[in-house]
Design goal:
Elements lengths: L1 H17 L26 E4 L5 H13 L5 E2 L8 E4 L7 E13 L6 E2 L1 H9 L8 E4 L4 H8 L8 E3 L2 H10 L3 E6 L7 E3 L1 E2 L17 E7 L2 H12 L12 E10 L3 H10 L10 H5 L3 E6 L23 H7 L3 E3 L9 H14 L3 E3 L1 E2 L2 H4 L3 E5 L2 E9 L14 E2 L4 H12 L4 E7 L10 H12 L4 E4 L8 E4 L2 E4 L13 H4 E10 L2 E12 L5 E3 L2 H8 L5
Parallel strand pairs: 1-2, 1-3, 5-10, 6-7, 6-8, 12-13, 13-14, 14-15, 18-20, 20-21, 21-23
Antiparallel strand pairs: 3-11, 4-8, 4-9, 4-11, 12-24, 16-19, 17-18, 22-23, 24-25, 25-26
Length: 537
């Protein structure tokens, strides 16, 4: 028993020494009845930088308060196990991101601006030339964090989110500062330092209008704090995976001279090879057709009746068509049999059809398709005729336009869709300006709830306008055509709509041009700007 007691005392001494307890030489040995209270294990501390926004700082502080056994808040970064701050450091992970934009009314011609110029306009003294600013009240802290302190006398209106687009549209020379995901089509974001926020491929690594919070520390604690933040707020308001796009073109004319060239080259996809790949990248591509498909088609440069060879659907495949609208009166040029054969051919390719059918009821049916997380309803009509092109109760053809009936159909489509697009084949006109009747009909559709109204009859780009919140395009032109007799008839517009998280955020009008080699190409730079003159709102 004595040796066992001595061994126990020795082990206890070694234990105390290992814990940092010093036993001086000559000190009396502890008795057999020894008790001690072990030191508590230090808790890891979490430091939150003072400039971290509340929507990040508060969830972290709340988590720490609710888990006192797991962590404590640190007053300074020195010695903290976890740091949360707005600047990236080695080993830190991105915790939170908010992307902001400076936008102008869509009718404004300003498109690009450098961040230095933005800051000067925001911080400019009263005597310097500047801009009028608008912002949502909740965005003011971010605005000052990104652009610096507001200059004395620089005009700023704080406007609630639901009023911002209307107020900015009515003002002159306004710059609107707002979160990216609060954009809407009437506000066009500027490219700042060359970054295009509406392009999901642009990752914005050095974009100057983004706020980012970073976290560094032990993996388990970082994960717990990250989950606490993301339970309260999304990690980003610009996730590239939540973008979607809808491309709308004018009607393609796979007939006459275009068809003759296809035959000569032995390449039915030839006219689409220049513009097809980009159009095919859209999540949904909507394309119009001028002529019916029939095996009896014998293309000629000059034809009173239009037709297309069945093989020319290859051009539609290259474009990546998802929905085809059939509103053109030429659809009836080869009679009802060719209409029925065209419907069978196109549906056999897997394309959804709108604006025509095997009878009136089918022709008038709306089509709804998913575009990312949004649901887009499409209605298409033929106002211009001729009468033999209109579907009847039992015969095939196009959907005849009646405004009152279109209003009713629009209301039904609106109830189940995030965006409603109406296409109308109105009477053919050359020149950019709409006729009085076109303007009346298109605006009436906008008042009835259409988000987009597009004329399908134009052979050249025509005027566009916002009417209330509806965007009206009176004609996009023909992206594939043989009308090479003027520059305008060689050109067309692609209406490119961008969606984020199921909301329609923005639109772009992208010009194309038919070339002497029979292919269409995209216009850029000065050529694009010239093509859009007289077209933009």
């Amino acid at each position: 028993p004595g040796s066992a007691l001595a061994l126990g005392i020795l082990l206890l001494a070694l234990s105390l020494r290992g814990m940092g307890v010093h036993i001086p030489r000559g000190a009396s040995r502890p008795s057999a009845a020894v008790s001690s209270t072990p030191s508590p294990t230090p808790r890891p501390s979490v430091w939150i930088a003072p400039d971290v926004p509340g929507e990040v700082a508060l969830p972290i502080a709340s988590w720490v308060s609710a888990h006192p056994e797991a962590a404590t808040l640190a007053p300074a970064p020195e010695g903290a196990a976890v740091t949360v701050q707005m600047a990236p450091t080695e080993g830190a992970a991105l915790l939170w991101e908010r992307v902001y934009v400076v936008a102008v009314p869509y009718k404004d011609r300003l498109t690009n601006l450098g961040s230095d110029a933005l800051r000067r306009w925001w911080q400019a003294p009263p005597e310097a030339e500047g801009q009028r600013w608008m912002a949502e009240p909740e965005a003011l802290d971010a605005m000052e964090a990104l652009l610096g302190p507001q200059g004395q006398g620089v005009p700023l209106d704080l406007v609630p989110r639901e009023q911002l687009a209307n107020r900015a549209w009515e003002a002159e020379g306004v710059l609107a500062f707002l979160p990216f995901d609060h954009l809407e089509p009437r506000l066009r974001p500027l490219q700042v330092d060359g970054y295009a926020v509406l392009d999901p491929a642009d990752r914005l690594e050095r974009y100057p209008l983004a706020r980012r919070a970073y976290i560094r520390g032990p993996a388990a604690l970082v994960q717990a704090l990250t989950e606490a933040v993301q339970a309260q707020t999304p990690p980003t308001n610009r996730d590239p995976g939540r973008f979607a796009s809808l491309a709308v073109t004018g009607s393609v004319s796979l007939t006459r001279g275009v068809a003759v060239r296809m035959d000569a080259l032995g390449d039915p996809g030839h006219p689409a090879r220049g513009i097809g790949p980009r159009l095919a990248q859209a999540d949904a591509t909507l394309v119009g057709l001028v002529a019916p498909f029939t095996p009896a088609c014998q293309p000629q440069e000059a034809m009173a009746r239009f037709c297309s060879r069945p093989a020319s659907v290859e051009a539609l495949r290259l474009i990546g068509a998802d929905v085809l609208y059939l509103t053109d009166g030429h659809l009836a040029d080869f009679g009802p049999e060719a209409i029925l054969a065209s419907l069978d051919l196109l549906e056999g390719e897997g394309w959804a059809l709108v604006g025509a059918g095997r009878n009136r009821e089918e022709a008038l049916q709306a089509k709804t398709l998913p575009v990312g997380e949004a649901r887009v309803a499409i209605l298409a009509y033929n106002q211009a005729g001729p009468p033999e092109a209109w579907a009847t109760e039992e015969g095939p053809g196009t959907a005849r336009f009646h405004l009152e009936a279109a209003r009713e159909a629009l209301a039904q489509a609106r109830a189940a869709a995030d965006l409603v697009l109406v296409l109308v084949q109105h009477e053919e006109q050359y020149g950019a300006l709409p006729t009085p009747q076109e303007r009346l009909d298109f605006r009436a559709l906008g008042e009835a709830g259409a988000d987009l109204v597009v004329g399908t009859q134009a052979h050249e780009p025509r005027a566009t306008e916002f009417y209330g919140e509806a965007f009206l395009a009176y004609g996009l032109g023909n992206p594939i055509s043989d009308q090479m007799w003027s520059l305008k008839t060689r050109q067309s517009l692609v209406l490119w709509c961008t969606f984020y998280n199921g909301r329609w955020l923005g639109l772009d009008l992208i010009p194309t041009q038919m070339e002497p080699d029979g292919r269409a190409r995209w216009l850029e730079g000065a050529e694009a700007r010239a093509a859009l003159e007289g077209v933009l709102p």
